[in-house]
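Job type: complex structure
Entries:
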Amino acid sequence: MNRRLSSGSSSLLAAALALVVLIALNVVASRTTLSWDLTHSGLNTLAPQSVLAAKHLDADLLVIGLFRSAAGNGQPEAEALVGLYQEQSPRIVYRSESFDTDVADVRKYSVQEPDTLVLDYRGKTQLLTPALQTEQDFTSALLTLESDHSPVVCWAAGVGGRSRSDTSQAGYSSVADILTRNNFETRDLLMAGLTAIPADCDEVVLIAPGIPLPAASVKAIGDYMAAGGSLLIAGDPWSQTPAAAASLNDVLKPYGLGFSGVLVVEPDTSRAFDLITPAALTYGSSPITRDIQGIASFFPQTTAITGTPDAAAAQLVIASTSNISYAIGTPRQDLTRQAADVPGPFAIMETLEVPAGQKKARIAMVGTTGFAENRVLPPSSNDANLELALGTFQWLAREDALISLPPKPPRALPLTLTQQDQSTIIFITIFLMPGLIVFAGVAVWWRRRLVR
Amino acid sequence: MTRVLTIARRDLMALFVSPAGWVVAALFVLLSSAFGFVIPVLAGQAATMDGVFGVITSFLLPVLIPVITMRVFAEERSEGTLELLLTSPVRDWEVAAGKWLGAFTFYLLLLATTLVYVVLLAVYVPGHLASLDLGLIASTYIGLLLAGGAATAIGALASSLTQNQIVAFFLALAILLFTWYAGTLLGFFTQPPASQLFQYSGGENRFQSFSLGLVTLKDTVYFLSLGIAALFLTTRLLDSRRWR
């Protein structure tokens, strides 16, 4: 009896000891970041610029993953990426939270979309929405957080138009929020009496004024651009104040461009939300559109951008309409195509880089003031317009120059299989392979039956 | 070691002469072909093994491995041959390791059938073998080897607890499903730090790095620990007949 008890006790003790050792091993291993990236193109290896950005952190960087539990939410990929940066710096602290239950963080960081990464560093924050979770985006965010400079956005004010504080569907409050969360400083720039743009304005925003711009203001913007400034300018169709629309075009006149003022109609349903809301799915190749290729962004009630700039200027059409689109010159109720309508396609968003001495002035033109209104931004819409707007502000602030990483190849290469190829594959995998196994199984069974 | 190999060979052969082994193999190949390869590759027109690996992790590991392992101890116990084996000049750990190795080898053979898909991708992808990310595929296979090793050890442990094969199957299924998915599920319904612990200890979460092309020490240690712990417990259970 005693011997049994002793054997049993020692056996249980040994089992408990072994489990403790294994758990301890796991605890130790969980603290190491030792890993081997076996992928051909180093999908899990950071570029030297990214490594440097991580190593430069001199305070804790809190990364919060606010995910909604669902297959394909991008959590493993995002966490693997954060893990790569953690390998480079012990300063990076990560925690995963539920977007639906962690109300405190969602509110604190004004997160609007599930599956967002929040980066909090020295009180400054960057939000990486699902479309912005590549190595390039993460490193750009790190560099922005590490930088002491906050780009200053000077917002033309006192001439009517959309307001940054307007929280209605037509307002720009979401854009103002996203700029603040991305370390932009926004301030009003009163157009009345303006003779020069302040030197600390990294970019000027001019959204379809409701009244004509004073000539002095137009000249001030011209001087600012001639010195290598940056300008975001948006027009609208069928302006109720033609003088205001004309003054907006006066700003663009030196560059050979302008807003036509016509209303663009897009009958191609695959490229439009409705007749007067064209959608872009493919974009001109630019740092602005890097993350939204293939994702629809909307341009409600847009006009067309017209004109040809100087040969020295670099013009890029970011978004355009289809060949069957047309434009209506004067206001009318019936939007069906009429003989006098102008045939498309039309450029509805463009960027322009113009040599300005040693620098280059940058202009982003959009044919509608609706491209960044609250109605087309999350949570009312997907995040393509948000990325487009944010990317535009970042491009104008020259933040695209912070980092340029070569793109990594996709995990799965595209295949172009002919009907014959597909038939061969189906035959081999669905019929031949299982068939061979069944045949072998039956053969074994038959042989054993004969032996018996 | 020779005795371990002898037991493994005997168990492996038993799987090949029983209909169960062939049914498992045919079912696995059919499912991985249809749902893992044909649908993702032909419908998606993408050279990816993700579908095949998905079938392995969601079906082969939690469902078919219990079918493979349910008989290893339970059958011997119900037929009374386990006592015979344990009283022969072999150590308990050799019996446990041999039984595990036999089932694990069968799992490896099933896994090997999926290499046909890699060959097919290499044939049809532009640039052939050179353009396939073999490192990414290899790292996932390493993860599947480790996860499969742990799963077969857990299956063997479940089989050693009972003499009824059906009970052994459901016990292994329950443990494997819990080990694989509990982290994600419990992590979702609990608060930190408990949720972090659950998320860390979930097999599905630990497998993710392998499927991304990354072989990490912590995940390797996790699966090895699971396997070793299950085999160790199996050995202690076999040993327990001496003092029960």
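Summary: Chain A has a mean pLDDT of 88. Residues 262 and 329 of chain A are 4 Å apart (CA to CA).
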